[in-house]
Amino acid sequence: MEYEFLNIEEKSDGVVLLTLTREKSLNAINSQMLNELHRFFSHVDDDIRCIIVTGAGKSFVAGADIGEMANFTASEAYDFAKLGMDTFMEIEKCRVPVIAAVNGFALGGGCEISVACDIRIASTKAKFGQPEVGLGITPGFGGTQRLSRTIGPGYAKELIYTTEMIDANKALEIGLVNHVYEPDELIDKAIEMAKKIVSKAPKAVEYAKQSIINGSQTDIDTAMQIEKTHFGLCFATNDQKEGMRAFLDKNKPKFVGE
Ligand code: CO8
């Protein structure tokens, strides 16, 4: 598929590096980039096992495109927010894990897309923030919801109300990112993590993701039911037989993804 603002690079073992390439605008998200992201994440090929999202140049994503939004009517803004939310939901619910490798500015919609990913790692150059209320708007791509579910309402409110930008170390301290690396190590570290993930049983990873995502959005009894269902489904896969046989035979499992 052809994209103007996405570069899709297939690494080995089903790991894909998706780079946002609107570098002149610091990868600010416009409608076209959103449509392209939506197209990619709504049809993730069966052979893809883990996706890494990063930004070209010095920025991850410097937010939604302010030039495009400036003259929106209320109804156009609603439609833009809906497209962003639908797209980020595709990322959150993507069949395979998505790692955000945050290489620079992750502001507004940029912070929001990172939080829609399963795991965030950052370079020492990363900067996170939610500048929206300084522009007279609220976060509109899920930021008021996912950020507080990720770092708790206290820090989420502080970031959103003050618009203060934080660096990678502060992001690490508040649990917004899992690891911080030197800029030239970031993608290699993301690939290393992705390769660890894809070496495990694909269906088990998929079911674990579904249990975490769906379970975190419901009450604990329903969540446990979801976990039980996925746990049970694992026992209908060949990979469960292979994983346990390999352990008992003291050798390495060969997972086939079924
Ligand atoms: N939108 C459009 N263009 C942008 C954006 C953006 N968000 N960010 C940067 N750019 C452009 C600049 O205008 C500039 O373009 P040009 O060269 O043509 O003048 C180019 O990128 C380079 O930017 P700077 O010269 O400003 O680079 P600096 O290194 O000096 O500064 C900053 C970098 C600090 C990142 C600065 O560019 C900045 O503050 N950008 C805006 C950040 C921001 O406020 N982001 C939040 C946007 S709002 C949002 O994301 C809401 C999401 C929900 C939407 C809901 C739908 C209704």
Automatic annotation (TrEMBL):
SUPFAM superfamilies attached to this UniProt entry: ClpP/crotonase (SSF52096)
Provide the protein name. Enoyl-CoA hydratase
The species this protein belongs to is Peptoniphilus olsenii
* PANTHER family tied to this protein: ENOYL-COA HYDRATASE, MITOCHONDRIAL, ENOYL-COA HYDRATASE-RELATED
- TM segments? none
**What are the entry keywords?**
Lyase
Q: What is its EC number?
A: 4.2.1.17
Matches recorded under InterPro entries = ClpP/crotonase-like_dom_sf (IPR029045), Enoyl-CoA_hyd/isom_CS (IPR018376), Enoyl-CoA_hydra/iso (IPR001753), Enoyl-CoA_hydra_C (IPR014748)
A single Pfam family it belongs to is ECH_1
Q: A GO molecular-function term, please?
A: enoyl-CoA hydratase activity
